[in-house]
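Record type: monomer structure entry
Structure origin: computed from sequence
Chain ID: A
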Amino acid sequence: MRTLSILFLFILFLGLPLTNAQEWHLSTFGKSQYVPLEDFCHFYHFPELPYSPGTEVHLSNGLVTLDFKPNSSVVFIDGVKHWLSFPIIERGAEIWISRTDLSCLFDPILRPERISKSRLYRGVVIDPGHGGSDKGATSRRGTEKNYALDTARRLAAILKARGIPVVMTRNEDVFVPLDQRVRMAAYYPDYIFISIHYNQAYGGGHGLETYALSPRGSPSTNSGRLYLTDYIASPGNQTDPLNILLAHDIHSQIIRLHPADPDMDRGLKRARFKVLRENVLPSVLIEGGFLSNAIESSLVDHAIYRQKLAEAIARGVLLFFNQIHSQGKKSRPNTLASDGSGP
Protein backbone atom coordinates (compact mmCIF):
# COMPACT_ATOMS: atom_id res chain seq x y z
CA MET A 1 0.00 0.00 0.00
CA ARG A 2 1.29 3.44 -0.96
CA THR A 3 0.02 6.41 1.04
CA LEU A 4 0.08 9.97 -0.22
CA SER A 5 -0.92 13.26 1.35
CA ILE A 6 -2.27 15.61 -1.29
CA LEU A 7 -3.90 18.98 -0.76
CA PHE A 8 -4.54 21.04 -3.89
CA LEU A 9 -4.00 18.50 -6.66
CA PHE A 10 -6.81 16.30 -5.46
CA ILE A 11 -9.05 19.32 -4.93
CA LEU A 12 -8.45 20.41 -8.51
CA PHE A 13 -9.03 16.89 -9.82
CA LEU A 14 -12.53 16.96 -8.35
CA GLY A 15 -13.21 20.51 -9.43
CA LEU A 16 -13.70 21.50 -5.81
CA PRO A 17 -13.21 25.18 -4.98
CA LEU A 18 -10.04 26.09 -3.16
CA THR A 19 -12.05 27.87 -0.50
CA ASN A 20 -13.28 24.43 0.57
CA ALA A 21 -9.79 22.96 0.50
CA GLN A 22 -8.96 20.28 2.97
CA GLU A 23 -6.23 17.71 3.16
CA TRP A 24 -7.24 14.45 1.49
CA HIS A 25 -5.19 11.37 2.34
CA LEU A 26 -4.92 9.21 -0.76
CA SER A 27 -3.95 5.55 -0.59
CA THR A 28 -3.53 3.04 -3.39
CA PHE A 29 -5.07 -0.41 -3.11
CA GLY A 30 -4.41 -2.60 -6.11
CA LYS A 31 -4.53 -0.21 -9.07
CA SER A 32 -7.08 2.21 -7.62
CA GLN A 33 -6.72 5.25 -5.41
CA TYR A 34 -8.89 5.59 -2.31
CA VAL A 35 -9.72 8.22 0.32
CA PRO A 36 -10.59 7.43 3.93
CA LEU A 37 -14.21 7.67 5.05
CA GLU A 38 -13.06 10.14 7.71
CA ASP A 39 -12.02 12.65 5.04
CA PHE A 40 -15.23 12.02 3.10
CA CYS A 41 -17.41 12.65 6.16
CA HIS A 42 -15.53 15.80 7.06
CA PHE A 43 -15.83 17.32 3.60
CA TYR A 44 -19.54 16.51 3.07
CA HIS A 45 -20.53 17.29 6.68
CA PHE A 46 -21.53 13.78 7.70
CA PRO A 47 -21.06 13.16 11.43
CA GLU A 48 -18.65 10.25 11.71
CA LEU A 49 -20.23 7.59 13.89
CA PRO A 50 -18.40 4.90 15.88
CA TYR A 51 -17.68 1.98 13.56
CA SER A 52 -17.32 -1.72 14.29
CA PRO A 53 -15.54 -3.76 11.61
CA GLY A 54 -17.86 -5.82 9.43
CA THR A 55 -21.01 -3.88 10.26
CA GLU A 56 -23.27 -1.81 8.01
CA VAL A 57 -22.67 1.93 7.85
CA HIS A 58 -25.42 4.55 7.94
CA LEU A 59 -24.58 8.22 7.41
CA SER A 60 -26.83 11.27 7.37
CA ASN A 61 -26.01 14.97 7.13
CA GLY A 62 -29.59 16.20 7.29
CA LEU A 63 -29.87 16.48 3.49
CA VAL A 64 -28.95 13.01 2.28
CA THR A 65 -28.47 9.51 3.68
CA LEU A 66 -25.89 6.90 2.71
CA ASP A 67 -26.08 3.20 3.57
CA PHE A 68 -23.51 0.58 2.63
CA LYS A 69 -21.61 -2.49 3.74
CA PRO A 70 -17.80 -2.37 3.64
CA ASN A 71 -16.23 -4.60 0.97
CA SER A 72 -19.36 -4.16 -1.15
CA SER A 73 -19.93 -2.54 -4.55
CA VAL A 74 -23.37 -1.19 -3.64
CA VAL A 75 -24.35 2.01 -1.87
CA PHE A 76 -27.86 3.31 -1.18
CA ILE A 77 -28.18 7.08 -1.57
CA ASP A 78 -31.48 8.26 -0.10
CA GLY A 79 -32.60 4.65 -0.34
CA VAL A 80 -31.78 4.40 -4.06
CA LYS A 81 -29.42 1.60 -5.09
CA HIS A 82 -26.19 2.57 -6.87
CA TRP A 83 -23.47 0.25 -8.13
CA LEU A 84 -20.00 1.61 -7.43
CA SER A 85 -17.15 1.60 -9.91
CA PHE A 86 -14.94 0.09 -7.20
CA PRO A 87 -15.93 -1.50 -3.87
CA ILE A 88 -15.89 0.45 -0.64
CA ILE A 89 -13.17 -1.41 1.23
CA GLU A 90 -12.30 -2.04 4.85
CA ARG A 91 -8.71 -2.14 6.04
CA GLY A 92 -8.39 -2.76 9.75
CA ALA A 93 -10.62 -0.25 11.49
CA GLU A 94 -10.70 2.13 8.50
CA ILE A 95 -13.11 2.37 5.56
CA TRP A 96 -11.96 3.65 2.17
CA ILE A 97 -13.91 5.05 -0.81
CA SER A 98 -12.45 5.03 -4.31
CA ARG A 99 -11.36 8.32 -5.80
CA THR A 100 -13.30 7.49 -8.97
CA ASP A 101 -16.58 7.07 -7.09
CA LEU A 102 -15.87 10.20 -5.07
CA SER A 103 -15.53 12.38 -8.17
CA CYS A 104 -17.90 10.60 -10.58
CA LEU A 105 -20.72 9.47 -8.27
CA PHE A 106 -20.83 11.05 -4.82
CA ASP A 107 -19.78 14.62 -5.59
CA PRO A 108 -22.21 15.21 -8.51
CA ILE A 109 -25.14 13.83 -6.49
CA LEU A 110 -24.22 15.50 -3.20
CA ARG A 111 -23.31 18.85 -4.77
CA PRO A 112 -25.14 19.17 -8.10
CA GLU A 113 -24.91 22.96 -8.00
CA ARG A 114 -21.11 22.66 -8.33
CA ILE A 115 -21.16 20.68 -11.58
CA SER A 116 -19.36 22.57 -14.33
CA LYS A 117 -21.66 23.15 -17.32
CA SER A 118 -20.69 24.53 -20.72
CA ARG A 119 -24.30 25.33 -21.67
CA LEU A 120 -27.86 25.61 -20.44
CA TYR A 121 -29.69 22.37 -21.20
CA ARG A 122 -33.28 22.87 -22.31
CA GLY A 123 -34.53 19.87 -24.34
CA VAL A 124 -34.58 16.08 -24.55
CA VAL A 125 -33.61 13.62 -27.27
CA ILE A 126 -35.76 10.52 -26.67
CA ASP A 127 -34.41 7.28 -28.11
CA PRO A 128 -36.85 4.35 -28.32
CA GLY A 129 -34.63 1.25 -28.47
CA HIS A 130 -34.54 -1.16 -31.42
CA GLY A 131 -37.16 -0.90 -34.20
CA GLY A 132 -37.99 -2.34 -37.62
CA SER A 133 -36.28 -5.68 -38.15
CA ASP A 134 -34.68 -5.41 -34.69
CA LYS A 135 -37.42 -6.51 -32.29
CA GLY A 136 -35.28 -6.46 -29.16
CA ALA A 137 -36.60 -8.47 -26.23
CA THR A 138 -39.83 -10.38 -26.78
CA SER A 139 -42.63 -11.93 -24.78
CA ARG A 140 -45.79 -13.80 -25.66
CA ARG A 141 -47.60 -10.47 -25.54
CA GLY A 142 -45.36 -8.14 -27.48
CA THR A 143 -41.93 -6.82 -28.41
CA GLU A 144 -39.49 -4.42 -26.85
CA LYS A 145 -39.37 -2.23 -29.96
CA ASN A 146 -43.11 -1.50 -29.74
CA TYR A 147 -43.21 -1.01 -25.97
CA ALA A 148 -40.20 1.32 -26.11
CA LEU A 149 -41.75 3.42 -28.88
CA ASP A 150 -45.06 3.70 -27.05
CA THR A 151 -43.30 4.72 -23.81
CA ALA A 152 -41.17 7.26 -25.69
CA ARG A 153 -44.24 8.85 -27.30
CA ARG A 154 -45.90 9.13 -23.91
CA LEU A 155 -42.78 10.71 -22.42
CA ALA A 156 -42.57 13.16 -25.33
CA ALA A 157 -46.18 14.24 -24.81
CA ILE A 158 -45.62 14.85 -21.08
CA LEU A 159 -42.46 16.89 -21.62
CA LYS A 160 -43.98 18.95 -24.44
CA ALA A 161 -46.91 19.77 -22.18
CA ARG A 162 -44.36 21.19 -19.71
CA GLY A 163 -42.79 23.34 -22.45
CA ILE A 164 -39.69 21.17 -22.94
CA PRO A 165 -38.58 20.68 -26.58
CA VAL A 166 -38.32 17.04 -27.67
CA VAL A 167 -36.67 15.18 -30.53
CA MET A 168 -37.30 11.48 -31.23
CA THR A 169 -34.60 9.31 -32.80
CA ARG A 170 -37.47 7.32 -34.32
CA ASN A 171 -41.21 7.90 -34.22
CA GLU A 172 -42.19 4.87 -36.29
CA ASP A 173 -41.41 1.16 -36.41
CA VAL A 174 -38.16 1.58 -38.33
CA PHE A 175 -34.60 0.41 -37.77
CA VAL A 176 -32.20 3.23 -36.89
CA PRO A 177 -28.49 2.29 -36.59
CA LEU A 178 -26.80 3.26 -33.34
CA ASP A 179 -24.35 5.53 -35.18
CA GLN A 180 -27.25 7.46 -36.64
CA ARG A 181 -28.90 7.88 -33.24
CA VAL A 182 -25.69 9.34 -31.82
CA ARG A 183 -25.19 11.64 -34.81
CA MET A 184 -28.77 12.87 -34.52
CA ALA A 185 -28.23 13.70 -30.85
CA ALA A 186 -25.14 15.75 -31.67
CA TYR A 187 -27.30 18.23 -33.63
CA TYR A 188 -28.90 19.26 -30.32
CA PRO A 189 -25.99 20.21 -28.02
CA ASP A 190 -28.26 21.82 -25.42
CA TYR A 191 -30.42 18.68 -25.02
CA ILE A 192 -30.08 15.59 -22.85
CA PHE A 193 -30.44 12.03 -24.19
CA ILE A 194 -32.71 9.29 -22.81
CA SER A 195 -32.72 5.81 -24.35
CA ILE A 196 -35.73 3.65 -23.43
CA HIS A 197 -35.56 -0.15 -23.38
CA TYR A 198 -37.12 -3.23 -21.83
CA ASN A 199 -35.07 -6.13 -20.56
CA GLN A 200 -34.64 -9.86 -21.08
CA ALA A 201 -32.66 -12.49 -19.19
CA TYR A 202 -32.33 -16.23 -18.97
CA GLY A 203 -34.39 -17.43 -16.04
CA GLY A 204 -36.79 -14.51 -16.11
CA GLY A 205 -35.06 -11.51 -14.53
CA HIS A 206 -36.76 -8.99 -12.29
CA GLY A 207 -36.68 -5.23 -11.82
CA LEU A 208 -35.71 -1.84 -13.18
CA GLU A 209 -32.24 -0.63 -14.15
CA THR A 210 -30.81 2.71 -15.20
CA TYR A 211 -27.42 2.99 -16.89
CA ALA A 212 -24.88 5.81 -17.09
CA LEU A 213 -21.54 5.66 -18.89
CA SER A 214 -18.65 4.06 -17.00
CA PRO A 215 -15.97 6.60 -16.00
CA ARG A 216 -12.63 6.25 -17.71
CA GLY A 217 -10.49 3.58 -16.07
CA SER A 218 -13.38 1.82 -14.37
CA PRO A 219 -15.20 -1.40 -15.31
CA SER A 220 -18.77 -1.74 -16.50
CA THR A 221 -21.02 -3.05 -13.74
CA ASN A 222 -21.96 -6.26 -15.49
CA SER A 223 -18.45 -7.12 -16.71
CA GLY A 224 -16.77 -7.42 -13.31
CA ARG A 225 -13.32 -6.71 -14.70
CA LEU A 226 -11.23 -4.01 -16.36
CA TYR A 227 -10.17 -4.17 -19.99
CA LEU A 228 -7.46 -2.12 -21.68
CA THR A 229 -10.11 -0.30 -23.70
CA ASP A 230 -11.72 0.87 -20.45
CA TYR A 231 -8.78 3.24 -19.98
CA ILE A 232 -9.57 5.08 -23.22
CA ALA A 233 -11.65 8.22 -22.73
CA SER A 234 -14.90 8.30 -24.70
CA PRO A 235 -16.81 11.38 -25.93
CA GLY A 236 -19.47 10.63 -23.33
CA ASN A 237 -16.96 10.92 -20.48
CA GLN A 238 -16.89 14.68 -21.02
CA THR A 239 -20.24 14.84 -19.22
CA ASP A 240 -19.60 12.22 -16.51
CA PRO A 241 -20.99 14.32 -13.61
CA LEU A 242 -24.13 15.24 -15.57
CA ASN A 243 -24.59 11.64 -16.74
CA ILE A 244 -24.69 10.27 -13.20
CA LEU A 245 -26.88 13.07 -11.85
CA LEU A 246 -29.41 12.54 -14.65
CA ALA A 247 -29.38 8.78 -14.08
CA HIS A 248 -29.80 9.25 -10.32
CA ASP A 249 -32.71 11.66 -10.70
CA ILE A 250 -34.56 9.39 -13.13
CA HIS A 251 -33.86 6.15 -11.28
CA SER A 252 -35.00 7.63 -7.98
CA GLN A 253 -38.37 8.24 -9.60
CA ILE A 254 -38.96 5.06 -11.61
CA ILE A 255 -38.29 2.72 -8.68
CA ARG A 256 -41.19 4.36 -6.85
CA LEU A 257 -43.54 2.55 -9.23
CA HIS A 258 -43.02 -0.55 -7.08
CA PRO A 259 -42.81 0.64 -3.44
CA ALA A 260 -43.89 -2.73 -2.04
CA ASP A 261 -41.14 -4.65 -3.84
CA PRO A 262 -37.61 -3.42 -3.01
CA ASP A 263 -36.14 -6.07 -5.31
CA MET A 264 -37.50 -4.10 -8.27
CA ASP A 265 -34.63 -1.67 -7.72
CA ARG A 266 -31.78 -3.41 -9.57
CA GLY A 267 -29.77 -0.25 -9.23
CA LEU A 268 -28.13 2.52 -11.14
CA LYS A 269 -25.40 0.79 -13.12
CA ARG A 270 -22.45 1.62 -15.38
CA ALA A 271 -21.99 0.47 -18.97
CA ARG A 272 -20.35 1.42 -22.26
CA PHE A 273 -23.32 1.07 -24.59
CA LYS A 274 -22.64 2.94 -27.82
CA VAL A 275 -25.46 5.44 -27.31
CA LEU A 276 -23.79 6.37 -24.01
CA ARG A 277 -20.15 5.99 -25.00
CA GLU A 278 -20.20 8.02 -28.22
CA ASN A 279 -22.78 10.56 -27.11
CA VAL A 280 -21.71 14.14 -26.39
CA LEU A 281 -24.98 14.88 -24.54
CA PRO A 282 -25.67 13.97 -20.90
CA SER A 283 -27.08 10.50 -21.48
CA VAL A 284 -28.82 7.59 -19.75
CA LEU A 285 -30.34 4.27 -20.77
CA ILE A 286 -33.39 2.92 -18.93
CA GLU A 287 -34.51 -0.71 -18.72
CA GLY A 288 -38.20 -0.55 -17.79
CA GLY A 289 -38.76 -4.19 -16.82
CA PHE A 290 -38.14 -7.77 -17.95
CA LEU A 291 -40.20 -9.17 -20.80
CA SER A 292 -38.73 -12.57 -19.93
CA ASN A 293 -40.54 -12.41 -16.58
CA ALA A 294 -44.18 -13.52 -16.93
CA ILE A 295 -45.47 -11.10 -14.30
CA GLU A 296 -43.47 -8.11 -15.48
CA SER A 297 -44.24 -8.74 -19.15
CA SER A 298 -47.94 -8.71 -18.29
CA LEU A 299 -47.41 -5.41 -16.48
CA VAL A 300 -45.47 -3.84 -19.35
CA ASP A 301 -48.19 -4.91 -21.78
CA HIS A 302 -50.68 -2.63 -20.00
CA ALA A 303 -50.76 0.95 -21.29
CA ILE A 304 -51.33 2.30 -17.79
CA TYR A 305 -47.94 0.94 -16.66
CA ARG A 306 -46.13 2.48 -19.63
CA GLN A 307 -47.86 5.78 -18.90
CA LYS A 308 -46.76 5.67 -15.27
CA LEU A 309 -43.21 4.83 -16.31
CA ALA A 310 -43.18 7.77 -18.74
CA GLU A 311 -44.49 10.06 -15.99
CA ALA A 312 -41.77 8.87 -13.59
CA ILE A 313 -39.05 9.47 -16.19
CA ALA A 314 -40.47 12.95 -16.80
CA ARG A 315 -40.34 13.74 -13.07
CA GLY A 316 -36.68 12.74 -13.07
CA VAL A 317 -35.99 14.98 -16.08
CA LEU A 318 -37.70 17.95 -14.44
CA LEU A 319 -35.77 17.36 -11.23
CA PHE A 320 -32.50 17.24 -13.19
CA PHE A 321 -33.24 20.51 -15.00
CA ASN A 322 -34.20 22.13 -11.69
CA GLN A 323 -30.94 21.05 -10.06
CA ILE A 324 -28.54 22.08 -12.81
CA HIS A 325 -30.29 25.41 -13.38
CA SER A 326 -30.17 26.31 -9.67
CA GLN A 327 -26.70 27.79 -9.46
CA GLY A 328 -25.42 28.59 -6.01
CA LYS A 329 -28.17 26.69 -4.25
CA LYS A 330 -26.86 25.38 -0.94
CA SER A 331 -29.57 22.89 -0.01
CA ARG A 332 -30.05 19.65 -1.88
CA PRO A 333 -33.53 19.02 -3.38
CA ASN A 334 -35.38 15.99 -2.05
CA THR A 335 -35.31 13.48 -4.90
CA LEU A 336 -38.19 11.50 -3.43
CA ALA A 337 -40.99 14.04 -3.06
CA SER A 338 -43.58 12.75 -0.65
CA ASP A 339 -46.46 13.43 -3.01
CA GLY A 340 -44.75 11.89 -6.05
CA SER A 341 -45.10 15.11 -8.01
CA GLY A 342 -41.41 15.75 -8.50
CA PRO A 343 -40.15 19.31 -8.83
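Annotation 1: Confidence is low (pLDDT under 50) at residues 1-19, 328-343.
Annotation 2: The first strand starts at residue 2 and ends at 6.
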